[in-house]
Fold this sequence. Notes:
Strands 1, 2, 3, 4, 7, 8, 9 and 10 form an eight-stranded mixed sheet that branches. The chain has a two-stranded parallel ribbon with strand order 5-6. It is built from 13 helices and ten strands. Helices cover 42% and strands 19% of the residues. It has two domains: 5-133 and 262-328, D-Maltodextrin-Binding Protein, domain 2 (3-Layer(aba) Sandwich); 135-234, D-Maltodextrin-Binding Protein, domain 2 (3-Layer(aba) Sandwich). α3 (43-59) crosses α11 and α5 (95-103) packs across α13. The termini are far apart. By secondary structure, the chain is α/β, with parallel strands linked by helices. It is globular, with a radius of gyration of 21 Å.
Amino acid sequence: xxxxxxxxxxxxxxxxxxxxxxxxxxxxxxxxxxxxxxxxxxxxxxxxxxxxxxxxxxxxxxxxxxxxxxxxxxxxxxxxxxxxxxxxxxxxxxxxxxxxxxxxxxxxxxxxxxxxxxxxxxxxxxxxxxxxxxxxxxxxxxxxxxxxxxxxxxxxxxxxxxxxxxxxxxxxxxxxxxxxxxxxxxxxxxxxxxxxxxxxxxxxxxxxxxxxxxxxxxxxxxxxxxxxxxxxxxxxxxxxxxxxxxxxxxxxxxxxxxxxxxxxxxxxxxxxxxxxxxxxxxxxxxxxxxxxxxxxxxxxxxxxxxxxxxxxxxxxxxxxxxxxxxxxxx
Length: 330
């Protein structure tokens, strides 16, 4: 009896044969969807669209971006977790993925995040590739009388009004966690003012309604160059090439906190390994293209990374962020 290729692939689809037929058929069936849990027009969205265009051309299959913002990225990320594990739905996640996992274990998780966390960040996803590293800079409004981290800390502890207020995206955001890490490290009295996104927080900082916040270096550079914001320190291990005159936090006298946020792509657990491998190759190759540095100009630095590196980073961040959250969110 002769078994046709179509019959073999039908058997494979039932889980009764090995995975090569999946790899041969994919991605001929339908467009690949990248679920971005942030609004259109933002940094994550623009990075995803830049990569989608390249991968679409290379695979000769449409790659579309589906924006599903809300509930501290939980809405969009849950869509990926519940999608068929066939390589046609993947998701973009950030440090919030690890933070949500840590907060999700707390009694007030739904209140803090605006939704339950109905998935496990490790168990329900497999990493595909890195996208971007997002270095951070601590900035203040020009009217704030501080030109160094030490001066900002001193100001926060001597103001007649309690503390120095900073903008964050709420308890589920990396910047909320990092500011509390900074408060513990420096002894500064920083008061959280939550916003729904980077744009409204930045708008209030530029207008002087709040005094300080952490911003992505690539986003903040335009305002620093024009004198609308004053940089105090970057949070990376080394000075950033875009802000070579700005000291690191360690150089400012506060070693012990080196932070760079990131974007990465994930697929639902159970996606056939040959498809995961192909997705990883295609997206990492796109991230490495020279033109991506320009396309990511307001996002961050291109970050090609293998699944094993990303999986280890996620587990590490869940533990690190979890310790901060347990100490600061009651």
